[in-house]
Design a protein that fits this description.
The chain has 144 residues and is of the alpha+beta class. The protein has a single domain (4-141), classed as CBS-domain, CATH 3.10.580.10. It is 44% helix and 20% strand. It contains five helices and five strands; from the N terminus they run H-E-H-E-E-H-H-E-E-H. The radius of gyration is 18 Å and the shape is elongated. Bound molecules: adenosine monophosphate. Adenosine monophosphate binds next to strand 3, helix 3 and strand 4. Adenosine monophosphate binds at residues 37-38, 50, 52-55, 77, 80-81, 99, 101-104.
Amino acid sequence: MSKVSEILDNKGAMVLSVDINESVLDAINLMAQVNIGAVLVQEGDTIAGIFTERDYLQKIALKDLSSKETRVGDVMTTPVVSADPTDSIQQCMETMTTCRCRHLPVVHDGNLLGIVSIGDLVKRMLDEKEAEVEHLSQYITGTY
Ligand code: AMP
């Protein structure tokens, strides 16, 4: 099974983030513009936390808080659980299952290399399974 770094090779290293002092409205505007479910929250050069659609639902919408007046730093989740680029897809899935989350920044030696979502992992796994089935059927039918 491939490594998470291979997903980043295809997907790229772009990670969208907001500053810890920005408002939740700024964060959700960014998420809506680029159609993503999570942003990292930075404090200077450091990853301070993560803010996802679920945080918005539970900590803003259900509590009837103002997204314009709430600082993203006050409702982010911290600390952030991350993956190493050498982690396998399966290891990342296990990490997500354990932390009940769908987003993992990929970090090596303190450097942020990218972020993967559960959707990226599932797509990669399905692509691999498809290639495996193709390979086996060519082997069985002698067209290998
Ligand atoms: P998600 O399923 O990614 O929307 O996240 C569910 C909850 O886990 C939210 O409270 C997120 O802030 C939190 N969360 C998501 N990803 C991570 C992560 N990599 N590390 C720590 N918490 C996370």
